[in-house]
């Protein structure tokens, strides 16, 4: 869909009249004051140099803030050396904060662990020693396939400590998806667990790792396995080692060597418009600076007293930036929860907030809409008065959900900060500052201080207030991706070729009459399901890989709960039978190929697909069908009667 068309659909949002300025008290004491914007404007990149020195402890100071001579490949904080794990851990212990709780962990079955900074530091040092004794060296890649348990954070920080590059693969992805990511990054080590708990039952992870490594030709030499749910697992002697053998017995002494500011920190795969996922590469100094800066300012962080809870899984970028890194770099206390929001009951999250006195909650609109569906009576049963700030991320938050969030969870007074950013941007890029910005329900509003975002038209010209177009970023930023792993050309083509000297985000956006930014969703073929990015092509490839399917087209249709839902149109092979079974079979097939999150909500069997003369599937027409609208202009189809044929077949 073009940005213009999307803009029309969201026209009503621009007439949002409600404003929620911060209370006087909040504004007066806020971490981020209006002067932050002035400083950022006046100081240019030096603003970031100041933040880098203030927020991080450098072993060697940098000599140049930004080297953009090889654009779009940026180098930030040139000449500086820094260790991410030292910044997240050791320095807090050295400063006498060793007894502060770093992580309150709550398992789905209700088991708990309280881990102080001193304890977390010790465990990360042990893990670093264990990984090194398994042959992991600086620059090696480590695949992480773990549930939301503390060992996930320990593993990521242990890699960072050594200078090994972690590649976290979401635990919901299949063995095949894991294997392709292991192969692309040529990972040496995999860290996993026997499994986790899901909806009150043990759920396995290790079998997917075994499946991924079944076929020869991979680069993995060891698999470290955390015991979590005590389910029996298959064991490959010589390759598999238990975490409690390898890590718990390792030495507690480990010196963090500082790495170059541009040393790779991690790779995180995300969906692109083609089937092959992109390995987004982040490096150390700039990433840590901007994640720490935004965590502190967007959320008005008080590390001494706040309890921060970001509900994202570490398999997504939000779980990297705002679980594994920023909260620890800022010395905060955070909650980590393993399970689902409705186990054992639909009030679990609110019970946790009451129990741990969570003061900052950061979650996704899809979760908020689910809670709305369950009803406000459930959260009303709990004491949520500890909540000070509410964050939203992952997709546009509709004004109804925004209002509900503020009223029901935030007691009608906690500021809601809607944060726009991407795997590629590493950290918040557009977000109100809770003590400065008068909030508007549904809008992410303004660029983070020091960040240059704009909305432009087809020609790359900045659009006036009241108009829509494409979201771009005009200046390099510290946490920007440094490339796509192993594919510099794709990096240039995907982000830097649509407009001259601007980063193309792939999102449509509008500026309202005040110049505030409203995000309108993706303009490419990437879908956003419950805040998770999936590419249409990836799911189409999975469908077509089934012997019954001749052709497939996938669209993201708007869905009240998940934002978008996967709707698939398939043409069956002559021999296949069109019945209920085939739909179930294909849904499960996609689940197996990619992961349960990618299972289509609907699969519609059709006789033909709408294609242009050049053979490109016109997904916007299918989207009209999927969303129950009258079908738009179909004149460029090679066969303009196709849409009637499809409609007729669906009425059958
Ligand atoms: C952090 C994250 C990125 C895509 C992005 C956009 C959508 C994220 C949003 C939002 C509207 C927000 N998105 N936050 N849209 N308002 N506050 O989600 O990263 O998984 O890479 O997804 O998500 O479409 O382009 P990632």
Automatic annotation (TrEMBL):
Modified residues (N6-acetyllysine): 616
Catalytic activity of the protein: acetate + ATP + CoA = acetyl-CoA + AMP + diphosphate
Domain of life: Bacteria
AMP-dependent synthetase/ligase domain boundaries: 96-485
Pfam families linked to this entry: ACAS_N, AMP-binding, AMP-binding_C
Binding-site list for ATP: 394-396, 418-423, 507, 522, 533
Positions of CoA binding: 198-201, 318, 530
GO cellular component, one term: cytosol
Necessary cofactors: Mg(2+)
Changes after translation: Acetylated. Deacetylation by the SIR2-homolog deacetylase activates the enzyme.
PROSITE patterns: AMP_BINDING
Gene3D superfamilies hit by this protein: 3.30.300.30, N-terminal domain of ligase-like
UniProt entry keywords in alphabetical sequence: Acetylation, ATP-binding, Ligase, Magnesium, Metal-binding, Nucleotide-binding
Binding site for Mg(2+): 544, 546, 549
GO molecular function, one term: acetate-CoA ligase activity
E.C. no: 6.2.1.1
Function field: Catalyzes the conversion of acetate into acetyl-CoA (AcCoA), an essential intermediate at the junction of anabolic and catabolic pathways. AcsA undergoes a two-step reaction. In the first half reaction, AcsA combines acetate with ATP to form acetyl-adenylate (AcAMP) intermediate. In the second half reaction, it can then transfer the acetyl group from AcAMP to the sulfhydryl group of CoA, forming the product AcCoA.
Family under the similarity heading: Belongs to the ATP-dependent AMP-binding enzyme family.
UniProt name for this protein: Acetyl-coenzyme A synthetase
Annotated source species: Arthrobacter cheniae
Lineage per the UniProt record: Bacteria, Bacillati, Actinomycetota, Actinomycetes, Micrococcales
Gene: acs
